[in-house]
Amino acid sequence: MKPQGIITAITILTAWLFNAGLQGSDTLSFLKTTCVDCHQGDEPAGNLDFSEFQEPKDLLAQPQLLLDILTAIDTSLMPPADSDILSKDARHSAVKNIRELLHAAIQVSPPANPVPMRRMTRFQYSNAVRDLFGLKIAVFTLPEQMVREYGNYYQPSTGKMPDAVTVGNRPLGKSQLIEPRLTGVTPYPQDLRAEHGFDNQADQLSVSPLLLEQFMELSRSIVNAPNFNNKTVGVWNEVFAVPDTNVSEWDGRIANRLQMVLTLAFREEVSETTVKRFAKYARTLVDSGADFTTAMKNTVAAILASPRFFYIHDHADPQFAIASRLSFFLWGSIPDQALLASAEKDDLTTTAVLESHVDRMLLDRKSKRFCDSFPRQWLQLDNIISSAPDPEIYPQFYFARYNTSMHMAIEPLLVFETVLIEDKSILQFIHSDFSYRSTPLKMWYAKADKIQHSGPGTLKFERVPITDMREGGVITNTAIMTMTSASDHTKPITRGSWFAATILHSPPKPPPADVPTIDRKANAADEDLTIREQLAMHRDNASCAGCHKTIDPLGFALENFDPVGQWRDQYENGKPVNASGVLYNQHAFDGIVELKSALLTEQERFAYAFSEHLLSFALGRRTTYRDTISLEQVVKQAGKNNYQLKTVIKNLVLSPAFLQVSQASGGNPLSIKGTASE
User: Fold this and answer.
1) What does each C-alpha distance from 13 to 8, 388, 585 come to in angstroms?
2) What is the pLDDT of residues 260-288, one digit of tens each?
């Protein structure tokens, strides 16, 4: 950093600390007058003793606690709803002070490792291999890629989703696994999804000795597949074809070809020493009697088995680190030549260049990979695969060896793709004025007497207008309602937990080990009590009340949807469904329509929560208090454009949290020239 920059940074930090002293004093006074009565003594509420804080520096040293306090006050969780100790103006003032104090605490806290080193998921590995070789067929089958595209309907460059699309469901439709792919190539086991997270999280992606051996075997099986040839490999002539020169002149050709492969595979400029090492290996194979193509295949297999290929990490050059991060975020794969060229020219420090790459990448068909990975995991749609409603109660759910969930799971994913392609607002995920439904799904929502089933082959979905707020968006999708239910009854706590984790990015803590399960019959219809009444013991238990007063209203708001997502006004016993509750102790609602309306009035909170999910996916780690300022900036900037999805993504890429590089690359965010508004 230049001397002038250092002086500026010191000046800013000094201002932060001065303001922190003022805000810290106000916050200490607030805690002592408002919170300390409950949060002190031998058994303080929430195991938090605020009487221990004597000076502002005590609070500055605990930014995570500050964030927790801020969230509790800002969402009106604290003080308790039955307390009149805090007026609206006092709450607003407290939130402002605590937020500024948190910002100061973040400024003086050590930076986090933005992108922990981790291996590729098998989804990313497959994409990377396809892009590296320009493969025209799949490397191996990926059941976790839920939507199988027919007819290349996904054309983001048009800015318009077709009114009718033909798709398949890979995990639930057996025939959807049949596709052109490399012969004899078997993937390593499916990656585990982190609880309330994604399968690309670093703490889930270690490499055991056994898995390392699998990587080596996998790389060899790819290049040695019988159909890995000039018909399926787009770069065959550039890499594997025999040169039209004498054998004695091959050394230069081998080195040039490997330099191209290595630069793409390792996502950075490679040294001459590295190129020579791999070229020497190839030449040794040729001299030992191997033909040119075989020698290059074996050398490329060694590249694929290199940790520099299958590990995602920050490169020594921060420009290449950001190029790689951006490509794995939006394409689930290695950077292309255009991204690497910008990194080589140090152009990724310019706002206009970064924005142009984001625009270009989202208009590319490879952005389908983002749609195949992020929304499925964000919505936890994999859970629908194991859903099995009682066939005696819901016989129409089943047809042949397949079931209606095959159609259900596709709907929210097509909605997401449409929001991205047409650059709609993320508020459409709360309630949309459209959806995509197959004929069986249309009949399912209408509770038709006889469902006209189709499948398991290609499934035709059509765009339909949505006017009923009970149906639009992703929250009330039949897939969500079915996967959060038991076989013969709804599970409001499960639904509320899903809602809190997915929509509000506030997953509840695991229940205490000593809390007994509720003894209830399978269906509230068989009871004199409603489900709400049966579950009241959770709210009466002191160790459970904290979480359940938040998640229970969210789950009860969805009680009008039965275990297979169809609307009901009353239970089988004739008792009416009570779907009332309060959101953030501020917005009373009666049913899902009013809850959606309340969420739309709190659109900044939803945008913040959605951005948290997006950032976690982009960086391969959970978000922390250190990301607060960046996320606030993302939401503020996106709000100027009605929270359009592409705007959210673009501002996230331009945020300090995304541009932060590891200590190996300097440890600071890239210095960006220009602003997102320029």
Assistant:
1) 9, 57, 36
2) 999 999 999 999 999 999 999 999 999 99
In terms of Cα–Cα distance, which of 19, 26, 39 is closest to 90?
26
What is the share, in percent, of the chain residues with pLDDT greater than 70? Answer: 86
Six-digit token string for 623: 């978000």
Chain segment 160-194, per-residue pLDDT in tens: 999 999 999 888 876 666 789 999 998 888 888 87
Distance CA 473, CA 463 (A): 13
Considering Cα of 509, then 92, then 587, then 503, what sign does the dihedral take? negative
Helix runs in 62-203, H state only: 63-74, 88-108, 122-133
Q: Span 442-455, mean pLDDT?
A: 88
Cα(503)–Cα(122) distance, integer angstroms: 27
| Strand pairing category for 459-465 and 434-437 | antiparallel
Helix (H) or strand (E) holding 56, with range, is: helix 56-60
Per DSSP bridges, beta strands 398-399 and 147-150 are unpaired
The amino acid at 258: L
Tell me the per-residue pLDDT of 115-129, one tens digit each, with 9 for 90 and over.
778 999 999 999 999
Q: Where are the domains of the chain?
A: 3-108, 118-129+178-367, 142-177+379-472
Q: How many CB atoms lie within 10 A of CB 520?
A: 14
Q: How far apart are CA 577 and CA 336, in angstroms?
A: 54
Dihedral sign for Cα 546, 548, 549, 551, please: positive
pLDDT at residue 59, rounded to an integer:
80
Residue 350 β-bridge partners: 673
Residues 6+ apart with CB under 8 A from 280: none
Instruction: Map residue 311 onto helix, strand or coil.
Output: strand
- Polymer length of the chain: 678
What secondary structure letter does DSSP report for 165? Answer: E
| C-alpha dihedral, 142 to 145 to 150 to 154, nearest 10° | -130
3-state helix, strand, coil in the chain (%, to 5): 55, 10, 40
Helix (H) or strand (E) holding 465, with range, is strand 459-465
DSSP conformational letter for 382: G
Buried b (16+ CB within 10 A) or exposed e, 573-611: eebebebbbebbbebebebbbbbbebbeebbebbbbbbb
CB atoms inside a 10 Å sphere around CB 514: 6
Tokens of 292: 């040119």
| Enclosing H/E stretch for 595 | helix 592-601
- The b/e string for 377-403 (b: 16+ C-beta within 10 A; e otherwise) is bbbbbbbbbebebbeebbebbbbeebb
> What HEC string does 477-543 produce?
CHHHHHHCECCCCECHHHHHHHHHHHCCCCCCCCCCCCCCCCCCCCCHHHCCCCHHHHCHHHHHCHH
Q: How far is residue 496's CA from residue 515's CA, in Å, rounded to a whole number?
A: 18
**Omega prior to 226 cis, within 30 of 0:** no
Rounded to whole angstroms, how far apart are CA atoms 59 and 625? 14
CA dist 507 and 487 (Å) reads 24
CA distances from 481 to 380, 491, 663 (A): 12, 9, 45
Task: Report d(CA 438, CA 410) in Å as an integer.
Answer: 9
Tens-place pLDDT, residues 355-366: 999 999 999 999
Q: CA-to-CA distance for 67 and 90, rounded, in angstroms?
A: 18
- 423 pLDDT higher than 70: yes
Q: How far apart are CA 481 and CA 249, in angstroms?
A: 66
Q: Identify the three-state secondary structure at position 148.
A: strand
